[in-house]
């Protein structure tokens, strides 16, 4: 992906673009926008040969995309400061996540329906926004209408029932914290799928 200002304008809310672009320029990481993934919205990694990399799923609405992006930048900055001596989502990451978010934690960037649960979430952020039901539901209201019409949250599917997500079919299993352990019907392999993932019943 070409990391230019126009790319940031495509994925972030207009008022957040300058700040998010400056974070990329300041920290100089490889930023990739990826196909949708079942198990995560984004991630951060570091390789000696290639440096820092952040990925974010391309199908997120602008508000969810921004939250995920800042989440991963906080991992990068925390890693830079502490290396591997701290928990991935420990108190250092939580503090950095909130600090990086403050410049855009405004009603100019986020609608009130998202801003209020987002402020609450940032008081003690978890590893995934999908574990915060009020924030997850508020973000979902801004997803593409076609998804909302044809899909339902995985939480509404009974255990043992089959569903499709991202073109692959699974059987729903038991809840593991904020994700369900599901079995892919074609391979028998098991994957964790976010509890609030939008799926289509078979």
Identify the notable features of this structure and list them briefly.
alpha+beta, 7 helices, 202 residues, 3-stranded mixed β-sheet, SprT-like_domain, SprT-like domain-containing protein, SH3 type barrels
Instruction: Tell me what portion of residues adopts beta-strand conformation.
Output: 15-25%
Class inferred from helices and paired strands = alpha+beta
Give the averaged pLDDT, no decimals: 89
Q: Estimate nothing, just give the exact number of structural domains.
A: 2
End-to-end Cα distance? 35 Å
Largest β sheet strand count, sense and barrel closure: 7 strands, antiparallel
Number of strands: 10
Order of helices and strands: HHEEEHHHHHEEEEEEE
Radius of gyration, in angstroms, nearest whole number: 17 Å
Low-confidence stretches: none
Query: How large is the count of helical segments?
Result: 7
Helix content: 25-40%
The shape is globular
């Amino acid at each position: 992906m070409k990391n230019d200002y126009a790319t940031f304008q495509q994925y972030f809310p207009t008022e957040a673009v300058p700040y998010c672009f400056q974070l990329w320029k300041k920290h100089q990481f490889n930023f990739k926008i990826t196909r949708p993934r079942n198990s995560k919205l984004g991630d951060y990694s570091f390789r000696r040969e290639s440096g820092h990399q952040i990925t974010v799923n391309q199908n997120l609405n602008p508000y969810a995309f921004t939250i995920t992006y800042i989440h991963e930048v906080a991992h990068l900055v925390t890693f830079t400061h502490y290396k591997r001596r701290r928990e991935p989502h420990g108190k250092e990451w939580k503090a950095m996540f909130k600090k990086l978010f403050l410049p855009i934690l405004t009603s100019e960037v986020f609608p009130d329906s998202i801003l209020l649960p987002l402020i609450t979430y940032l008081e003690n952020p978890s590893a995934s926004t999908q574990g915060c039901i009020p924030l997850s539901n508020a973000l979902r209201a801004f997803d593409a209408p076609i998804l909302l019409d044809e899909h339902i949250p995985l939480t509404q599917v009974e255990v043992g029932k089959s569903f499709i997500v991202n073109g692959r079919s699974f059987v729903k299993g038991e809840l593991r914290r904020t994700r369900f352990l599901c079995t892919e019907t074609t391979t028998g392999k098991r994957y964790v799928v976010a509890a609030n993932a939008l799926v289509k019943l078979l």
